[in-house]
Amino acid sequence: MPAIRKIVVHSLAGYRPEFDALVQGWMRDGVNYVGVVGVDAARLEDIVDELCVGDGTSEPYFMLTASHPGESLSEALALANMLTGEYAGPVQVIEF
Questions:
Q1: Is the pTM above the cut of 0.90?
Q2: Confidence (pLDDT) at 1
Q3: Is 1 part of any domain?
Q4: What is the residue range of 81's domain?
């Protein structure tokens, strides 16, 4: 089975500090797409982007991101599943 490189975060409660560690783990694991739907979707997407850019002491990590404020989980999954090329593959849903 191929490694999961696409994640859709279904945010149930919005941002919590432990989200940062999750994102850093995804970067170590080679995840290349994160979509966020649910509570604080746009804010969580911004945090993913900020962590990928980093503090300037190392090269930025490139990850395609999307937020889906006001959309359903199924809509976010539909977009993730439409991605092709380097973004092709299975999607994992993470409830946070």
A1: yes
A2: 55
A3: no
A4: 6-95
